[in-house]
Amino acid sequence: MKKFKGKIVFLLIIILTMFLVAGCNSEKDSSGDTSNYPNQSIKIIVPSSAGGGTDSTTRSLAAQAEKKLGQSIGILNKPGASGSVGMTEGANAKPDGYTLTMVFVELTMYKHLGLSPLTPDEFKPVAMINFDPAALTVRSDAPYNTLEEFIDYAREHPGEISVGNAGTGSIWHIAAVNLAQSANIKLNHVPYDGAAPAVTALVGGHIDAVTVSPAEVKAQLDAGNLKTLAVMAEQRSALIPEVPTFKESGIKAESIGTWRGIVVPKATPDKKVAILEEAFLAAAKEKEFQDFMKNNGLGIQLKNSQEFKKFITKNEEFFGEMIAELGLGQ
Amino acid sequence: MKKGNIIASIIVIITSLFFYFNTMNFKKLDNQIIGASFMPRFYTTLLVILSIILIIKNLSGSENKVENSKKYFRYSIITMLFILTYLIIIPVVGFYSSTILLVFTLLYFAKLKNKVLLVSIPIGTSIFIFLFFQLALNVIMPTGLIF
Amino acid sequence: MNLLIQGLMNILDLQVILVLLIGIISGIAIGSLPGLTATMGVALVLPITFGMNPITGILLLIGVYFGSVYGGSLTAILINTPGTPASAATAMDGYEMSKKGLAHKALTISTLSSTIGGILSVIVLILVAPQLANFALKFSAPESFALAVFGISIISSIAGKSMTKGLMAGVLGLLVATIGIDPMGGFPRFTFGSINLASGVNLIPVMIGLFAASEAFKSMEDIFAKQNLAIKVEKVRLKWSEFKTLIVTIIRSAGIGTFIGMIPGAGGDITSFIAYNEAKRFSKNKEEFGKGAMKGVAAPEAANNSVTGGAMIPLLTLGIPGDAVTAVLLGALMVQGLQPGPLLFTNNGPIVYTLFIGMLLANLFILIIGLLGIKYFIKILSVPKAILSPLILVLCVVGSYALNNNYFDVMVMFLAGVIGYFMVKLEFPVSPVILGLILGPIMESNFRRSLLMSQGNLAVFYTRPITLVLLIFALVTLLGPIISKLIKISKGKEIINENN
Q1: What residue stretches are annotated with the DUF112 domain (chain C) (predicted)?
Q2: H-only helix segments in A124-210
Q3: Which of C7, C193, C302, C487 could share a disulfide with C357, CB 3.0–4.6 Å?
């Protein structure tokens, strides 16, 4: 019995120590106070795995934003369900301006696809950083050299052209469907597990075209294996400036592409959002970040909080219609 | 362990049937030759057949007998319950304090007599995890509601 | 050749070598902990390399990558806790050897096979990468499907005592793999409205649960039963004559590993199982496998390390990342302003050859660190189970959480641990579940993708030579044990008839 008592005392001491240690560490809640914001470290939730494009873009941007905000920024990777796991956590975070989320185009599609009830309305946009359009890319030995020729060929061979995408309901799938609808042609859509496997299949000659971002095909363009016919955007891509846009090629197609931007939970005070907006937009203009994006073939397109909000709303409406027409979702 | 095999087979059959009926409301896209429900149905059917074979084998006695001591079985179950409790309290009291408690409890349960070890191992474990995972690898363990 | 010598000169720099060593050692540590995979290790180190020069940065990542592949097997052999999915096959015979007191021998075999496999694959990479890469491109959906079917057929050789139980475990893995968003149609299957299930059941937590947690649960029992308490470590070293018997197995496995490693999206994690299966097929003592066969350790180890060189082939020559690790490496190269692909060799020849030399050196360092470290690694076996088991359980929790910072994965790990415990008790093999989980999605999506590409024509599965050969292999592997059983029975009858 004596022994047993000794053990209990041990246990109590441990628990007490824990309470004390934890008590000392607990940070003051500063959500109401904006005068000296930010006065503690900031966390950015990245809803995809470490090492991916979104992750390294965020890390590179955060390194510059740290200097502007005067606080350290930590990255928390939370992948899963095309990003909806991490974004949901970001939406439910404390709206104190210390938990940010890096969101991407899929945010505007979850609800339409029936993947998650999460909508962009749960967030307040801070700044959009990057945009990469869909680029219609084919093998360099393909019998068509322009978008017009591609469309003529597709009209003569309906349903015979296989177009690889990054997965059913992915942004690149939507882009291919958008192409087919705008040009009134029939394509055979083949989903892959991401953009890279689709590009691989195209290089291997197993499919006829892909509609992914210029960055994902750049290496193969340089090597002469593939050629890009047109980009689905308002302006030409800085990475492949010689390639015309859809509009220039005579096809009126909505500009579709992937984008990334910083958001905060919707109840975050506007004053804090303004501070963050200024810091991140300035960070994105730093040379180190610009170089990073250039090396990775990623396009920089900055939008402030207001513009970003409009852009998201437009995307959401457009994808809603597209997805409903495709019969995806539930 | 005849009984165990039969129980396992029955559990697998029930699970398979549950999954099979769940595939009934899978949607099929127009352009797809094989829909989302094809493979799951194939697998569940296969599982049911295999389970039935296992039951027959056990009833006919052709399956090898497994020797197992049932006497100490409960200690594993108790350990599982400890872990379950641990997983439930982590979100409440935080990772590090729960871990100290869990390791201490398990060591005590495993009849570790050395008092120095009983205290130093739980604390040492938490420190190691903090240093290696939290500081070096930047994995932020859950903090809990109280702390 | 000049470029290789130049590469060697570039490497012989104290700072570069030091960085490579640091990479390998942290890689081994990361790989040996459950939940921390090679991909995660490389991804975690990636941001640090942004500020380094290309050679130092990339070699640091390569050190971590190679080190963690090797490290994953240490704990698989010693405490039945494969650190990475690629080491799951090693646990089958490696842990059995440890239980017999042959841990020292098993680790020596693992270290030697790993480094030989790694070096052979890098040599292949240096000599014939472009030719092989073009062959790898021939792999389309039907070929990948056939390879996955072949992988699944291996269940029959790792099933253990009961084929029925082995198949049940394998199909269970395949079924669990269908949980989540359907890869082809985008429809959420068996998610019951949970977004955590939408991305499917994660392989790593399941593996940690099935292997490590279930073993820890079981050893709590042993503590009270006062049995199997301490694994004795006998001072048995690997003899040269024994090593000679393994050489053919190691070379064959390295070939398999390099080959499958270079095929994009084939799932490098299963090469160790395929190599294991082939080692068993060519072995005269098939019964030894699963009970601590030396070849059962050498084959998966040589294979999973040779995947490293194989995976670099399409990455460097075509700019195509074949798996998750090389996808991160691709990003790392691009950040340094290097564009992998055919032009890399012409534009950045010296850097490429420096990397090649670095990869060879990395394998040599692993050999040295491994052989010197064995006597320290096996000390873990002298830790009493009463202390080790609680620690393993905590590491299972931390490891599965660290993977995605998601508490849901921890719950999956716990459930897998409980199921794994009962499976072991009822003598259901757990490895087939892992095989099913890895290969299920690859098989299903490539099957459906093939049909989509052929517009529903089943001929793609028997008119393409590689596909046909792989499917025949699969059939032989799956039916082999059954046929040999039938032959035995009929022979037995003949003998009886003759006696009569």
Answers
A1: 17-435
A2: 147-156, 171-183, 195-203
A3: C7
